[in-house]
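Researcher: We plan to redesign the surface later, but first we want a full-length starting point. Tokens attached.
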């Protein structure tokens, strides 16, 4: 009978380095931690909301959203009771909208199964919708002091430099090993959550991405192997990054009277379930787009170009061409909204920022723009 192999046979040096780093890192963090609103207390719901918002999003962007969200949904019960469209409207501009849906669904399960509170363990948290290893680990360690890791790209970058590890950090085996090694150290600490948070903070304010680590101001510079080897600017190794797929789209600004047409996007795919302007595949000329509009039996009263914009998603890039039409009647199957409803009622992702501005102000329509990330 074969004996079971240990998961990590050569445990030793890396944990030793990390164990030596722990008091330095925790001491540095306690003196230098930024006073972020979700650090005011160890409330698991606040931590969950902040960690969900912070995925793929900068802290400066999240701050105003966090305060507003917590003011309207101060606990899981309030969030669970809110209509999905309202929650998505609160999320407008933050991008990656599936996070908001999952958060609301997680809140509903907290109400149904846990009396309106978050489950009190990593395993319980991990079973909620949208909570992956990272988010469940962050909440469980920060709120409950459970010795579980919270490893994201930020933490992997710090560790690949700290250990001078040239392996590709996008490989799941590398992440799994990092988790195990961190947890071996966390089990020896009184404050595992503080260690996790300190590691995150180090990645955000010292061990910065794109070859810009601030090693002279880093509490770990005496232990960091990449610093000793002079390789810190070359790490981490992110493997081969696939080029984004480029897609051409024609965005239609369809006015009828004072209203503009919107459509609810499909439940699957990019910007799923959100509102947007009607879109056609490909970069159509104004003439061809007008023909498409006329095919619904309406008269086109005016036609103008509405500018071009690029929007970058994680794996896809949209090159959008806008066409603006005024028709004598509404097109069937679309929602016609007043300009002020775009601000108050419908969550329009930032991909449509250029066209939304025109829909609000029908006098301006010749602009070009490059947009940020949205999902
Ligand atoms: S010494 Fe430099 S490379 Fe090493 S962990 Fe600190 S900031 Fe990162």
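Model: Full-length starting sequence:
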């Amino acid at each position: 009978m074969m004996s079971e192999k240990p998961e990590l046979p050569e445990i030793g040096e890396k944990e030793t380095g990390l164990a030596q780093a722990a008091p330095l890192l925790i001491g540095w963090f306690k003196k230098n931690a930024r006073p972020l609103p979700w650090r005011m207390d160890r409330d698991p719901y606040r931590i969950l909301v902040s960690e969900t918002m912070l995925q793929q999003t900068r802290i400066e962007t999240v701050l105003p959203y966090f305060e507003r969200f917590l003011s309207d949904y101060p606990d899981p019960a309030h969030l669970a009771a809110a209509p999905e469209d309202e929650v998505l409207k609160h999320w407008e501009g933050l991008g990656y909208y599936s996070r908001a849906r999952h958060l609301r669904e997680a809140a509903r399960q907290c109400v149904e199964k846990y009396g309106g509170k978050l489950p009190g363990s990593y395993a319980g948290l991990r079973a909620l919708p949208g909570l992956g290893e990272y988010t469940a680990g962050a909440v469980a360690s920060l709120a409950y002091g459970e010795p579980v890791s919270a490893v994201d790209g930020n933490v992997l970058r710090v560790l690949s430099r700290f250990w001078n590890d040239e392996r590709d950090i996008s490989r799941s085996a590398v992440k799994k090993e990092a988790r195990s090694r961190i947890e071996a150290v966390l089990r020896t600490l009184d404050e595992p959550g503080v260690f996790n948070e300190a590691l995150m903070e180090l990645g955000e304010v010292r061990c910065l991405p794109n070859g810009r680590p601030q090693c002279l101001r880093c509490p770990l510079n005496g232990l960091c192997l990449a610093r000793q080897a002079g390789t810190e600017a070359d790490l981490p190794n992110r493997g081969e990054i696939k080029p984004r797929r480029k897609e051409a789209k024609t965005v239609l600004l369809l006015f009828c009277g004072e209203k503009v047409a919107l459509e609810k996007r499909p439940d699957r795919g990019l910007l799923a379930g959100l509102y947007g302007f009607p879109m056609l595949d490909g970069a159509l000329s104004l003439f061809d787009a007008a023909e498409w509009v006329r095919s619904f039996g309406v008269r086109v009263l005016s036609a103008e170009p509405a500018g071009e914009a690029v929007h970058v998603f994680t794996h896809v890039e949209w090159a959008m061409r806008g066409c603006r039409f005024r028709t004598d009647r509404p097109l069937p199957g679309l929602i016609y909204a007043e300009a002020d409803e775009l601000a108050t009622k419908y969550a329009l992702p930032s991909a449509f920022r250029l066209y939304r501005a025109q829909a609000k102000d029908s006098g301006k329509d010749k602009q070009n723009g490059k947009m940020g990330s949205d999902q």
